Each structure stands twice: as structure tokens, then as C-alpha cells.
Amino acid sequence: MTIAELHEHVNxxxxxxxxxxxxxxxxxxYGSGHNSVAALRELSLALRRGSFTAVMGPSGxxxxxxxxxxxxxxxxxxxxIHLADVDLASLNEEQLSRFRRERIGFVFQAFNLVSSLxxxxxxxxxxxxxxxxxxxxxxxxxTERVGLADRVKHKPGELSGxxxxxxxxxxxxxxxxxxxxxxxxxxxxxxxxxxAILSLLRGAVDGLHQTVVMVTHDPRAAAxxxxxVFLADGQIVETMEHPSPDRVAERMTHLGD
Length: 257
Hints:
By secondary structure, the chain is of the alpha/beta class. It is 36% helix and 25% strand. It has one domain: 3-Layer(aba) Sandwich (Rossmann fold).
């Protein structure tokens, strides 16, 4: 695949109004001088609103750095990142924190729930931190969609791992974010439970027109996405539309060839 063809596949030329996430020539370098390490190298990518994208690559390929920079959890060394209509570089730390809370949803492998709060309180925590009153009808719909309608009064210690991740997904959805970033969301779950969680994320895209960006090492998880972006050495080396587990696994085997 030529560079021009690759750029076409990753939709760099998407109109700004159509892109939920846009990275332009993003690099991230840790350290300096002879000790510097480039985690991302001039990476450009635009992701369409209402799409499900999986990001894959070997260890050290830049997957986590990509997610952290794209989600505003870390700042790039150079290049620009836009989420929806906002240039993240234009925000100071306080503004960026508020932006993440109000317009970005996060789902992590470790769930990141507050053990002393009920499921309902964990779900609405970002809204309460933003001093916003939850929409009761929307909260009821979200908890129903993730299968927690009869568990909202339970605390995390009273829930299974799969149920805790459902709480995390509901928490990500309740603020109606521009993008949900998921970092290995099924990594701590068994295969059956993981499939149910992935189906929920797929349903959020198809039924709620949500945008999901998921870092994963699992070809079966990546197959739930519309597009898989493969990274190696901090760069995009290929994208795959309509992925299947076998095709993704085969590509991962030869990544870097």
C-alpha cells in the first residue's frame, strides 16, 4: 500500500464536521538526547463520527500513547489533535480536565469504579463532578441498555467483573460524550463476558450513533469494529475494513514484515 493509499484509508481528508477525532502529524517523544524514545512518529488519522475503530499493534507500537494523546490524557510533543471541533492544544490543564469529564467517555481494563459508591452513583459521578443533574430518563435507558436495571443499588464489590465493566460503559455513555475511548476493555474478563461487553460497545455505535475508539490486543475483539488501525514503531502501517478475527490475527502475525 502506497502512502497515498494509506492516507485515503485512514480518512485524513474527512471534512472537519464529519470527524470525531483528528490527529495531524502527531509525534510523542519521551526523554531527550540519546535517551529519547519516539512513541508516535508524525501520525495522522481522522475517525468518522458514529464509527467503531480498533487500534492494534505489538508491544511498544504506540497503542497506549496514541490513546492517551487522542483522549487528552497526555499532550503530544508536536502535531495537533482535534476532538470534534476543539483543538486540545488550545486548552489549559483545568479546561482540558473539564473537557475530558464532559465530552469524553473512558472504559478501562481495570474498571476504575469507586468502591464506596453504588452502581448508579458511579454511573453519574462524571455528571456530579461537572455539577450537572442527571437526566433521569436517559439514565434509566442507559442502565437498561447495559443490563443493570436491577443492579443500580449494588456496590462494585457486590458485582461480577462483567457487571462492573457494564457500570463503566454506562458511566461513559451517560454524559453523551463525543467519543468513548476504551483501553483493553475485555482484558480482565473471560471470553463469554468479554463478548457481551463488546456487543454493548457495538450497540452503542449502531443504536446510539456513538463513536468508539478501542485499543486491544485481541483479534476477536477487533472484529467487532468497523475498521482496524495497525500501528508499528509509532506509525500507522495498515488499516483493515470489515475485519474478521482470522484476518486480523494473520495481519498481526506479519506486522512489521
